[in-house]
Amino acid sequence: MILEVAVLPVIPRKKEQFEAAFRQASTLISSMKGYISHELQTCMEDENKYLLLVRWETIEDHTVGFRGSEEYQQWRKLLHHFYDPFPVVEHFTLTQSYV
């Protein structure tokens, strides 16, 4: 499993519009091959900052499959105009787990 991590800096006063667009965009990403799950969290210190966590079976499911798809083009149209600056997206793999 791969964990995609993105800190999303949303333009101030666009929070409600962003969250509505994200709900719509969620149906796009969740339909993709290799998709496992995703969550969106709001920063407690900065209400205009969000953390997006997406779990994929492989990194290629995200970087090739999703980003190369028509669904990604729709995702971009729905969400990318809310970000300033544009987010950095990184991928992580589990090293150790503690319960």
TrEMBL record:
Residue ranges constituting the ABM domain according to the UniProt record: 2-92
Position of the signal peptide: none
Keyword tags: Monooxygenase, Oxidoreductase
Keyword field contains Cytoplasm: no
GO molecular function annotation: monooxygenase activity
Domain of life: Bacteria
Key word Phosphoprotein present: no
Protein name: Antibiotic biosynthesis monooxygenase
Species of provenance: Paenibacillus sp. SYP-B3998
